[in-house]
Amino acid sequence: MSMAIPESEVRADGKPSLPILAQVLHWLTAALVLGLFATGVMMKQLGEGPAADLLYLCHKTIGAALLGLVLIRIIYRLFAHLTARWQKGAASRPVHALLYLSLLVVPLLGWAGVSAFGARQLLFGLSLPEIWAPETGHAELLLSSHAWLAFGLIALVVVHIGVALGDYLTPDAKAD
């Protein structure tokens, strides 16, 4: 059974529509990224206290879920052969590649940072495995890199939205 886009599944403008699973994974990823960015900014603004601690736990738990979701998306894209949607604009492929890279690197840096800091606890009594030794003293560098790259990820999301809008609003050359 192929997960590729059947030719019958095309939008009114002649472009292939994505399968529902791809759409769900896309929008779930988008929601998690925006939620993580918001909680990250809020927890840093709060500093310390019970509310900040709860936000940290939520942020780490959702970040772990995002990392798993991104891995599922990558596997799905490989098996579903969904690359046809990336071929329209010159910017589309590099933006998607950078998005996927960022969606992997940012959570991994966060995980390494909390491992180095010694704060691997998640919600529901779960805990992340240690991937960076706490005694190395790199927690601040890892978490700072995590934060800066998260801002870069948000910038990429804005570029992605712009490319998608441009793709949607620009008529195909074939239509002429």
Characterise this structure.
- The chain is mainly alpha-helical and about 180 residues long.
- It has one domain (about 20-170): Fumarate Reductase Cytochrome B subunit (Up-down Bundle).
- It has helices at about 20-45, 50-80, 90-115, 140-170.
- The protein is elongated.
- α3 runs antiparallel to α4 (about 140-170).
Key descriptive features of the protein:
mainly alpha, 0% strand
Compile the SSE list and pairings:
Elements: H1 20-46, H2 50-80, H3 92-117, H4 139-169
Helix pairs in contact: 1-2, 1-4, 2-3, 3-4
Question: Quick recap of the structure?
Answer:
With 176 residues, the chain is mostly helical.
Strand count, sense and closure of the main sheet? none
Radius of gyration (Å): 19 Å
CATH class: Mainly Alpha
Distance between the termini: 36 Å
Give the tally of structural domains: 1
* Alpha-beta content class: mainly alpha
Mean pLDDT: 85
Helix content: 55-70%
H/E series? HHHH
Helical segment count: 4
